[in-house]
Amino acid sequence: MSNHPVQTVSTSNDKVKIALAVVAAIAGVVGFFVLLDQPVARVIVLIVGLLVTIGILWTSDVGQGFVAFAKESVRETKKVVWPTRREAGQITAVVFGFVLIMALFLWGTDKILEFVLYDLILSWKK
pLDDT tens across 92-111, in order? Predict the structure, then answer.
């Protein structure tokens, strides 16, 4: 992926749009918790608040930059060469084998240190 410089919100128009989007999101969440007696209305208020937030952000430079980033991410993901089922199984078997060998090594090291410290040096075991 190409390196893009970090962009900040520069225009006052974008700052207003982002502020309105935050207010719309908060309004939707607050409406969801205020309308406890009306289960259908509270879900509708939440969804409308989030959709208004997305709509406002979509028109800002930040939203357009996010859309461009998402498109580029999808394009880069399509370039990835995924392993076949057989390769994935082989890699998984190697990882399990390594974990088993490391577990046995650490168990053995622990038992050797236990023997050396408690039996030979401290003579605590009876």
Answer: 999 999 999 999 999 999 99
Residue 82 gets which letter from DSSP? P
* Structure token digits, residue 54: 């997305």
Which token pair is 106? 């650490």
* Domain range annotation of the chain: 12-78, 83-126
Sign of CA dihedral 17, 18, 22, 28: positive
What is the model's pTM? 0.50
Helices (H), the chain: 12-34, 39-58, 61-78, 85-114
Residues 65 and 71: their CA atoms lie apart, in Å, by 10
Residue 115 to residue 36: CA distance in whole angstroms: 64
Q: For residue 33, what are the contacts with CB-CB under 8 A and spacing of at least 6?
A: 42
Angle at 13 between CA 12 and CA 17, to 5 degrees: 115
